[in-house]
Design brief:
This protein is α/β, with parallel strands linked by helices. It has helices at residues 7-16, 33-42, 60-68, 82-88, 107-113, 130-139, 153-160, 170-178, 218-230, 236-242, 250-259, 273-289, and strands at 29-30, 50-54, 71-76, 95-99, 119-124, 144-152, 179-187, 192-193, 200-207. It is 40% helix and 18% strand. The chain starts with 6 loop residues before the first helix and ends with a helix.
Length: 290
């Protein structure tokens, strides 16, 4: 039975193994059973599901997932935690622990070796690497159903915000291209040990079967989006012309903007996902013709 969702048992296992937190891994362990239950419920885990957990830590949420899911694949980067996981997960025969950096794992191979999917991802993500991990999951093309993650509240807000706000950017557009973001719960810093400096939020990303917009070339679309926000204060014409690797000039960008009935001084932060898709498709055709 899951027994790590409190401070006493968490502190006891950490002391037993003389485990020292490593700042480079952003380690903060959840010690609130109510939040753990809410995460599993929000992820809609059933015995039919295969769950990929990223960063199991000492196995706190892994225990809850193992009791709800058919199979759990837990990927942990810190090898010092592996002996602890061997103890805390010893009573679960449906958990596989892999000591690896998830950003270096062949996710397609991993999923195929464990039934081929579909899979649900659940994770308490380190703040410093949240965006790369979420983007790697989406871009891996593995058969995802959903991603339910604990992230810094500011990042969660960024995922669901729209044009014209300070938090709107490439992450907002990428998440909204691949999934529908939904805030599940706000989690105060007091629910973790050690206590982080910021509050967290649980967000569920329900994967679309098909993106809500048509991109003729997804890599090109996201190349345009990233370049548009790399230099937020610049106009699209200036920002894209200065971006390396795109191979487009200011005149081409301005021509497309005019074709769309937009100002030559338009900025990316005012574009919706739909407008970015239209803009990138037009710009791609101009580039091919030129």
């Amino acid at each position: 039975m899951a027994n790590l969702g409190n401070y006493t048992n968490t502190a006891e296992i950490l002391q037993k193994y003389q485990f020292r937190m490593q700042k480079k891994y952003g380690q903060n362990f959840l010690i609130d059973a109510n939040i753990l239950t809410k995460i599993v419920e929000a992820a809609q885990i059933t015995k039919e599901d295969t769950v990929l957990e990223i960063g199991p830590g000492i196995g706190t949420m892994t225990q809850y997932l193992a009791e709800a899911a058919g199979k759990v694949i837990a990927v942990e980067i810190d090898r010092e935690l592996i002996p602890i996981l061997e103890e805390t997960l010893s009573s679960y025969d449906n958990v596989t622990v892999l000591c690896a950096d998830v950003l270096k794992v062949d996710l397609t191979k991993l999923v195929n070796e464990n039934g081929g999917g579909p899979i649900k991802v659940v994770a308490n993500l380190p703040y410093y690497i949240t965006t790369p991990i979420i983007m790697a999951l989406f871009e891996s093309r593995v058969p995802l159903t959903s991603i339910t993650v604990m992230v810094q509240s500011e990042v969660a807000d960024r995922m669901q915000t729209g044009p014209g706000t300070k938090d709107y950017g490439a992450l907002s557009l990428a998440v909204q291209y691949y999934a529908k973001p939904e805030i599940v719960a706000r989690v105060p810093a007091s629910c973790f040990t050690p206590r982080p400096n910021v509050d967290s939020t649980v967000v569920r990303l329900m994967k679309f079967e098909e993106p809500p917009v048509k991109a003729e070339d997804e890599d090109w679309l996201f190349g345009i989006i990233r370049a548009s926000f790399n230099q937020r204060r610049k106009t699209l014409a200036n920002g894209l012309a200065n971006a390396g690797g795109l191979g487009i000039g200011r005149e081409q960008v301005e021509s497309v903007l005019e074709e769309m009935g937009l100002s030559r001084t338009a900025r990316g932060e005012t574009f919706t996902l739909e407008r970015f898709a239209d803009f990138s498709n037009r710009l791609l055709r101009v580039r091919k013709e030129g």
